[in-house]
Design brief:
The protein is built from two helices and four strands. By secondary structure, the chain is an alpha+beta fold. It has a four-stranded antiparallel beta sheet, covered by helices on one side.
Length: 96
């Protein structure tokens, strides 16, 4: 398994419960597809460099995990389909 990070920009109008629900959904998805969640960092609301979907702020979330290619493919699929996710990117983590 390799180290990865997924950074998401969520809709800033979401309540705390909705954000926690998305985090749990992603963590369960990673675990279900043979991955291991190492850390979930909530960066909170931040101003965007440019508007996305007419929003000038976004809620930033970073999840560090270990996974296999199937894990990454499923994360891409689910992130695209989740309406609350405005943008996301998945990158390989640095070797430690």
């Amino acid at each position: 398994m390799r180290d990865y990070e997924i950074m998401l920009i969520l809709d800033p109008t979401l309540e705390k419960e909705a954000i926690e629900k998305i985090i749990k959904k992603l963590e369960n998805l990673i675990k279900k597809h043979k991955g291991k969640v190492e850390q979930a960092d909530k960066w909170g609301r931040r101003k965007l460099v440019y508007p996305i979907l007419e929003q000038v702020e976004g809620y930033y979330l970073v999840i560090k995990f270990k996974g296999i290619p199937e894990t990454i493919a499923e994360l891409h699929r689910v992130s695209k389909l989740t309406d609350e996710v405005m943008r996301y990117i998945i990158v390989r983590g640095a070797k430690t």
